[in-house]
Design a protein that fits this description.
- With 739 residues, the protein is an alpha/beta fold.
- It has nine helices and 60 strands.
- A 15-stranded parallel sheet has the order 1-4-7-10-13-16-20-24-28-32-36-40-44-47-49, with no helix packed on it. Strands 2-5-8-11-14-18-22-26-30-34-38-42-46-48 form a 14-stranded parallel sheet, with no helix packed on it. It has a twelve-stranded parallel sheet with strand order 3-6-9-12-15-19-23-27-31-35-39-43, with no helix packed on it.
- Strand 59 and strand 60 form a beta hairpin.
- The longest helix has 77 residues.
- The radius of gyration is 57 Å and the shape is elongated.
- It starts with a helix and ends in an 18-residue tail after the last strand.
Length: 739
């Protein structure tokens, strides 16, 4: 019974493990699909072409992954509802990115399909076998939606007579060999795209989105960037009665190699783009936007494109012609548009207008801003080619490069009505001189402007970065064209004298002059003073270097003398030891002769020998003492001594010398007995040497005095004389040996 229960428990656990969806995987074969795909069965592997038939609906839960195992497609004739969540997106991708999948194809889909938070990646259309593939294939698709054209466009999404809604979808890294690398909107399709991100897609036409043939998509708050078209429309391509609304979008860093880096509009449409930014796009014609009716080869009638561009900013786009905007034979209007910092390698850095201008205009109610664009050859901001008559261009802001031509070419064909010169060509400091020329750049002292007003017109007056006008010495008198009141309108502009000049503002003139303390002579004096200070510093430094060198030389010589002295000391020490032995041998016989001989003459000679031998022995001992002192081996042998009687015994030995030289010799001892500890032998030598020098250098009739002073701890011997003394400059040498 117990074994049976245990077996049942194991079996139950096994069933639970098998039923748990650890690695779910659902294969979907080719055919019709509908119903609901659940997250717990994800991923769904598509093993062939599948279709949502009419009157059917497929619901895909958040978090589902749909993986196409080959180059298959999902055809929607009914309704697809793929509503993911922000943190739980739905993914459509191939198992092999090199092969890709064929995308979702909405073909006359019923109702409204919805895709939210869906990621569609690595879609790829079929490559045509005919190298001469042209737009002629489109004609067959107008009557037959199943024609081969479906295979060549729409890398991730293809719409034919369908109106799906896409919200917060990511469409990335898809490719179409013909049109619409990300999305192809075709033939009466009216989808809505909101908050979508369409990036890194590529196609022949419309790298991100391609719209054509009576479609009216709404593209709102989308980011369209880094898409590529080998022909036209790097970001978006609009053609043939497609009335696309583009609002609140960011269209950045797209490339359309032929026309329209950001957006290209072609033939017979009424599009609207507003409140959007086009930044950093590139093309051969129209780096930001390209607009061209292209109605027929003889151009005998006006174009039918009626475009409105409202509150759009085109910045840092580039092209060969028309860095910001390229327009040809087009109706429409620019309203409150800002075109700045765009570049053209040939002409029309900001705007390039070709042929008939009568059907296209700049708004007079909400003025446009065109400034700080650059063209290498012609028309930094505006350039017009062909057409008849002048084109009125009212602007709020316009670049002033050359005051006579206003930087628009040709001037005769562009009648500019500039309402406000608040911003001009340069956002930099400028230079003005009475000898200057207003056609100069003014950006350096070598190319100064002549007129203050022109300088003020060229400086950004409402900038948050203050700018300065540097004026050369002279007087600038104001008249109707050179009004000092302009300074009040340019509150961020500072007027300064060039270099070290002072500026005096008058009611009718500005005077620029150089004060005396900073004129040429003053600067020369300052320079000479500086040179003098540098010379003094140099001399002091050189003197210090010489003193240091001299000190090092003396230290070297002292070191050498010390080495020689050590050699001599060692020599005398060695020879002294050698002398002691024969002297000892001399003293012994001399002493025995004196003791045993009865001959007085012989005793006298022996006594003479003994005294001189002892004197020589004493000299040898002094040499040994010197060597001991230098080596630090000399030791004092102190013993208690009555210093008064000891000193008097030594002093009395000089009495005869004092009488002979008639020198008064006094000994002042204070008290008769004073016990101290001293080495009698050393003190005897020191005192004898000092007294000997005192008597030696004191003339006859002089005086030598010896005092013994004591206190509770010490005794002090003071010897004074009336001799020649020691010069003050040599006092520090008294302890130098042999000096």
């Amino acid at each position: 019974m117990r074994n049976l229960s245990r077996s049942c428990a194991k079996f139950s656990v096994l069933l639970m493990l098998l039923s748990h969806p650890t690695f779910p995987q659902t294969h979907v074969p080719a055919g019709n699909v509908n119903g609901k795909w659940l997250k717990q069965n994800s991923p769904y592997l598509i093993d062939g072409e599948i279709k949502i038939p009419r009157r059917k609906k497929l619901i895909i839960e958040p978090g589902v992954k749909v993986i196409f195992t080959g180059h298959y497609k999902l055809i929607v004739n009914g309704i697809l509802e793929a509503k993911g969540a922000k943190q739980d997106s739905i993914y459509f991708s191939p198992s092999d990115t090199s092969v890709g999948w064929h995308g979702i194809r909405f073909i006359e889909a019923e109702g409204v399909s919805r895709l939210e938070y869906c990621n569609l990646k690595y879609g790829r259309t079929t490559q045509p076998s005919n190298d001469d593939f042209t737009d002629s294939i489109y004609m067959f698709c107008e009557t037959d939606p199943e024609c081969e054209y479906l295979n060549y466009s729409g890398g991730a999404l293809f719409l034919y007579r369908s109106n799906p809604i896409l919200n917060h979808c990511l469409i990335s890294k898809n490719t179409a060999c013909q049109g619409g690398g990300g999305i192809m909107i075709f033939y009466h399709s009216n989808p809505t795209l909101t908050n979508c991100e369409i990036k890194n897609n590529s196609a022949g036409l419309g790298g991100g989105i391609y719209c054509r043939d009576y479609s009216s998509p709404n593209i709102i708050n989308c980011s369209i960037f880094r898409n590529t078209a080998t022909n036209n429309g790097g970001g978006i391509y609009v053609q043939d009665y497609c009335n696309a609304l583009i609002e609140g979008c960011k269209i950045e860093d797209n490339i359309g190699y032929e026309r329209g880096g950001g957006i290209a509009y072609y033939t017979s449409a009424k599009p609207l783009i507003k409140n959007s930014d086009l930044y950093g796009n590139y093309s051969h014609l129209g780096g930001g936007i390209y607009v061209d009716e292209f109605y027929n080869e003889f151009r005998e009638q006006p174009g039918k494109i009626d475009i409105r561009i409202i509150n759009v900013k085109m910045e840092n786009n580039s092209a060969e012609y028309g860095g910001g905007l390229w327009i040809r034979d087009t109706m429409g209007e620019l309203i409150g548009v800002t075109i700045c910092n765009n570049r053209a390698s040939v002409a029309g850095g900001g705007v390039y207008i070709e042929h008939n201008p009568f059907f296209f205009s700049f708004s007079e109610e909400k003025l446009c801003n065109v400034y700080m664009n650059f063209a290498r050859m012609m028309g930094n901001d505006l350039f017009r080619l062909g057409g008849e008559g002048a084109m009125i261009v009212p602007l709020d802001t316009f670049t002033v490069k050359n005051y006579s031509s206003l930087n628009a070419e040709p001037v005769a064909n562009l009648a500019l009505s500039i309402q406000n010169f608040k911003l001009t060509q340069v956002n930099a400091d400028l230079y003005v001189s009475p000898d200057g020329d207003d056609s100069n750049s003014g950006l350096s002292a070598g190319e100064p402007l002549k007129t203050l007003k022109i300088a003020l017109l060229r400086i950004l007056s409402d900038s948050t970065n203050p700018r300065t006008v540097y004026m050369a010495n002279g007087e600038y008198i104001f008249n109707e064209t050179d009004d000092i009141l302009l300074l009040g309108k340019h509150k961020y502009v500072t007027v300064k004298g060039d270099g070290f000049s002072d500026v005096i503002f008058g009611t009718d003139r500005i005077t620029i002059f150089t004060p005396w303390y900073i004129n040429v002579w003053a600067l020369l004096i300052y320079a000479s003073m500086l040179i003098s200070v540098l010379a003094v510093v140099w001399n002091v430094r050189m003197r210090r270097m010489r003193m240091k060198s001299e000190l090092e030389r003396k230290e070297f010589e002292a070191k050498k003398l010390h080495e020689v002295d050590e050699i001599k000391s060692r020599f005398f020490t060695n020879i002294s030891h050698e002398f002691r032995t024969p002297l000892t041998l001399i003293l012994g016989p001399a002493k025995r002769i004196m003791e045993k001989s009865t001959d007085d003459t012989l005793k006298t000679d022996a006594d003479f020998i003994e005294r001189n031998a002892k004197k020589l022995t004493k000299l040898v001992d002094e040499l040994l003492d010197i060597s001991k002192i230098e080596s630090g081996e000399m030791q004092l042998k102190a013993c208690p001594v009555n210093i008064v009687s000891f000193v008097k015994d030594i002093a009395y030995s000089f009495s005869a010398l004092a009488d002979r030289k008639k020198i008064t010799f006094n000994i002042n001892n204070g008290k008769d007995e004073l016990q101290v500890y001293l080495d009698k032998e050393k003190v005897d030598k020191i005192l004898s040497n000092v007294l000997s020098n005192a008597f030696k250098f004191t003339p006859e009739g002089g005086k030598v005095e010896l005092k013994i002073i004591h206190n509770e701890k010490n005794a002090e011997l003071i010897i004074s004389d009336t001799g020649i003394g020691i010069p003050a400059v040599l006092i520090d040498k008294i302890f130098d040996r042999f000096y």
